[in-house]
Write a structure and sequence with these properties.
It contains eight helices and 16 strands. It is of the alpha/beta class. The radius of gyration is 22 Å and the shape is elongated.
Length: 307
Amino acid sequence: MRLAFMGSPDFAVPALRALHGAGHEIAAVYCQPPRPAGRGHRETPCPVHRVALELGLPVRTPARLRREAAEHAAFAALGLDAAVVAAYGLILPRPMLDAPRRGCLNIHASLLPRWRGAAPIQAAILAGDAETGVTIMRMEEGLDTGPMLLKAAVPIGPRSTTPELHDALAALGARLILEALETDPPATPQPAEGATYAPKLGKEDGRLDWRQDAAALDRRVRALNPWPGTFFDHAGERIRVLEAEPVPGAGRPGEVLDGAATIACGGGALRLLRLQRPGRAPLPAAAFLRGFPLPPGTLLAPCPSTP
């Protein structure tokens, strides 16, 4: 089948490799343009771009697509059977959605209509969902509203993290897109009820508010690492919390309860297991505390507006 592949981050790489390995003709790979990265701010291609070059596939990196008639025409001229889209990063306008014979098929990392939007994996963990999954959807102009072709679920365990689910869902998406292209299953409209949205995350989403209960804060740590990362501010430094667990405990929200970095929350307590100071390496809590003590009785501010 003659395809275009449209994706940018690591999540999309297994699908690109699977499509290439299955013998599909990939006429073009679309991804985000190279961005400055690292200390030298050198222009760096995204993961899909690097893999496409490794596989010898032609790459296109338009900065925008909306109102770009030349891009629309070039896409239509590819003569595609279908386009496969996985975390591409640009919204496809109607002329591009309509160009492939079988449309544009999206690999979305949730069980639609739950968690439409930019951060479905993180949202599922934050909400305490028991499962998530992948939906193969035929794209339309709405945000993740198109009809569904295939679905498969993955359980979310009590200690599941975003990186673990990311890798499992990326592999599942690669398998499902091959099945969808081979079998051409009938499309099922998404139900109107049950739709939820997972907005794009920002750095402040990672701030730990000790007034929340420990279970919610534990989910935040598991959901938001490595990006945007969870943190609290203390003694003029922003301390990243890379790993934690909820434990029994009571005290004022933000109070350090013992010498093992156990922090009282709005309900229960959160034991900090791995932390990182700015510009330093991540450390287990015991080693971290030797260089940055948090004596019992110390009160960490719940949020910026609280002294």
